[in-house]
Each structure stands twice: as structure tokens, then as C-alpha cells.
Amino acid sequence: MYRVKLGTLIIVIASLMTGINAQAGVRSFFSPKVLGDKVAFCSSDKAVCGKAIADAWCAQKGFSKALLFQRDRNKVTDNNVFVRFADTGKVCDEDVANGQCVSFRQIKCILVQ
């Protein structure tokens, strides 16, 4: 009887550890940043937006790709809040008062092994 309980305990612990390891490969970044500023939703030349930018940002953080991403619906209209392009590192200064600098609200990265 003792061996059965010990075997069951080992299986339970192994299952929990597997679940923990699987979760360690996914991380959510809320209001992701590049050089301390919000990450722009598009590249500096506006040729690429969304998924491709999120994938590149995740890769830069050591992950395989973006599993999920969300655009921030709140327009940046404050001159003290900066949005930076991930491809060049330059600050988006396209008429901030009119909310032309769009950023990510969230990027969820995954590490595929």
C-alpha cells in the first residue's frame, strides 16, 4: 500500500512540474517597451504592422514568436508619453497631438522548443 501511494505521489509531482514548465514558455507583456518607451504598432516606414512587429519584439526578448497581440486603442496625445519604433529605435513624432503614434497594449510571447 505504501508503494502505491508513493508511486501516485511521484506521478502527481511530475504532472505538476510538467505544467509549470509548459507555462514558463509563455509570457504576457502589458504595455511593452523598447528603450523605456511604448512599442510602436508599425515599423517606422509603416510597411509592416501588428504580428510581424510583435514577432520581432518577442524574438528580441528571447522568445520564438508572438502568440497574441493587442493594439492600444487609446491614442497617445500626451507630449510626455513616447512611442518608439522597434525597427529603428527612433521616437514616433508624427503629430502626437492628433494621436498618430499607435502602440501595443499587450504582446504575449511564446518559446517553442
Structure description:
By secondary structure, this protein is an alpha+beta fold. The chain has one domain. 29% of the residues lie in helices and 23% in strands. A three-stranded antiparallel β-sheet has the order 1-6-4. Strands 2-3-5 form a three-stranded mixed β-sheet, with no helix packed on it. Strand 2 (33-34) and strand 3 form a beta hairpin. The chain is elongated. The relative contact order is 0.24.
Summary keywords:
3-stranded mixed beta sheet; 23% strand; alpha+beta; 3-stranded antiparallel beta sheet; 113 residues
Tell me the major beta sheet: 3 strands, antiparallel
What is the tally of helical segments?
Answer: 2
What letter string, H or E per element, gives the SSE order? Answer: HEEEHEEE
> Are there runs of 5+ residues with pLDDT below 50, and where?
6-23
- The SS-based structural class is alpha+beta
Kindly report the average pLDDT value: 80
**Tally of structural domains:** 1
Percent in helix = 25-40%
Number of strands: 6
Read across the widest sheet, the strand sequence of neighbours is 1-6-4
Shape: elongated
Alpha carbon gap, first and last residue: 39 Å
What Rg is obtained from the alpha carbons, in whole angstroms?
20 Å
Looking at how many chains there are and whether they match, the oligomeric state comes to single chain
Percentage beta strand: 15-25%
